Amino acid sequence: MADRQRFDIIYIPVSLGPAPTCHVLARGVEAIDRTHALLWWLRNELGVQVDPVSMFDKPIDETLDCGCELYLSFRMEQVGRMTALLIGTRAAAVADIECRPCDQHTRTDWQAPQRASRDWNGTVAAWKHKPGRPESFEAD
Q: pTM value?
């Protein structure tokens, strides 16, 4: 069996202005690779079963059990040169996500962290785990 690594699941909102503020949705997810970590999080956090063989073929458009309306599409994103050398691949799977939250998952307190809400429009990806990474941070 392949060695497991640890990944953080990161949400990067769509931004037309300055660099967006990214949010950590999950920390230290153990997985074989980035794609496995991302699919694990989607299954365990959102209850969305994604077939890794056909995940790039067509988008997922469904209403979750709680009532959130979710749209997901997958694509490969090129990783940096040094990361590519370390992980042995030049691209990683990411999910473009749009979610219209149900009443249960709508933020009512403007100071509540993004991860408490499902008002998402952006990208979700698995990044190499960093224990000191803050809950929210500026994208590079």
A: 0.84
pLDDT in tens, the chain (140 residues): 456 789 999 999 998 888 888 999 999 999 998 899 999 999 999 999 999 899 999 999 999 998 999 999 999 987 666 655 565 567 788 999 999 988 888 765 544 455 557 888 999 999 989 999 999 888 76
> Are 129 and 28 within 8 A, CB to CB?
yes
Q: How far apart are CA 54 and CA 59, in angstroms?
A: 10
As given in the structure block, the two tokens for residue 113 are 């962290």
Owner of token pair 């785990």: 129
Count, residues in the chain:
140
